[in-house]
Design a protein that fits this description.
single chain; four-stranded antiparallel sheet; 11 strands
């Protein structure tokens, strides 16, 4: 059974940092693409960052480039999203998603591709 469980969300002041984790199980992380998405109230879901677990290629949304870093640890079946220099507009529920097989990170992020989704974790950036 495929499962993705996000953790690490919370309340942080503008300029602060958070690291989200996506613990995966039930499939081989080595041959999949994992993405982080977010959705704020009243807004469409946005692909934040995606990573290919096979070759490490990544894609970032323009809004987070230079501030967020996606990484994965295949030995721990976990994908991380390090978020620095957080802004109030980063406030949203963050979800991780997985596509099994060979999908490019850009395609996954741009087209919100995801066969499996986690339950989400709230990130609030506020003073």
């Amino acid at each position: 059974q495929v499962q993705l469980v996000e953790s690490g969300g919370g309340l942080v002041q503008p300029g602060g940092s958070l690291r989200l984790s996506c613990a995966t199980s039930g499939f081989t992380l080595d041959y999949s693409t994992i993405g982080w998405f977010r959705q704020a109230p009243g807004k469409e879901r946005e692909g934040v960052s995606c990573i290919s677990s096979s070759d490490g290629n990544t894609h970032y949304a323009v809004s987070v480039k230079g501030r967020f870093t996606i990484s994965r640890d295949n030995t721990k079946n976990t994908v991380y999203l390090q978020m620095n220099s957080l802004k109030p507009e980063d406030t949203a529920v963050y979800y991780c998603a997985a596509v099994l097989g060979d999908t490019t990170p850009q395609a996954m992020c741009v087209h919100s591709l995801g066969a499996y989704w986690g339950q989400g974790t709230q990130v609030t950036v506020s003073s």
